[in-house]
Amino acid sequence: MRRTVCALAALLVAGCSSGPDDVLDAWKAAGESPSGFSDVGEKLPGGKCHAGKVSGLDATVCVFDNEEKAKAAEDAGWKLVGNTVGSSVASGKTVLVIADPRKEDPSGRRINTLVKAYQKETR
After folding, report:
1. How far apart are CA 102 and CA 106, in angstroms?
2. What is the pLDDT of residues 44-69, one digit of tens each?
3. How are strands ordered across the β-sheet holding 57-63?
4. Which tops the pLDDT comparison, 76 or 15?
5. Which candidate in 23, 54, 91, 116 could, as Cys together with 122 as Cys, close a disulfide (CB 3.0–4.6 Å)?
């Protein structure tokens, strides 16, 4: 009985923490194509970040120690977006920064789809 309870507790803890791989898997499940994601260090202050491309867009996913630190880093994400169309969104202990410097998504629909899949995974 005790082993079962411990195993269930471990699964609950593991299920509550989304990292970059979980976000990439969520995008793949939504029919998107993430590629070239690699560790880029602390691209946002206090975060452990991975960056790459997803469906032609630049994306950075950063994981923080807690939700408050992630929310505080959301504004810094807008600096990564720069003068292009994009988004910086905190959800749970992660921040997604997505930018379209090559104007691949003029309607913003792809960005919206990626943000929704990210939020669904990280809540």
Report:
1. 10
2. 999 999 999 999 999 999 999 999 99
3. 34-41, 48-54, 57-63, 94-99, 86-91
4. 76
5. 91
- The model carries a pTM of 0.84
Report strand pairing: 57-63 vs 94-99: antiparallel
Q: Which two tokens stand for residue 102?
A: 């090559």
What token pair was written down for 19?
Answer: 């990292």
Which pLDDT value is given to residue 64?
97
Tell whether the torsion through CA atoms of 72, 77, 83 and 84 is positive or negative. Answer: negative
With tokens 């960005």, the residue in question is 111
Q: How far apart, in whole angstroms, are the C-alpha atoms of residue 62 and residue 76? A: 12
**pLDDT at residue 16 is higher than 90:** no
Q: What are phi and psi of 76, to 5 degrees?
A: -65, -30
Token digits of residue 118: 């990210």
Three-class SS of residue 13?
A: helix
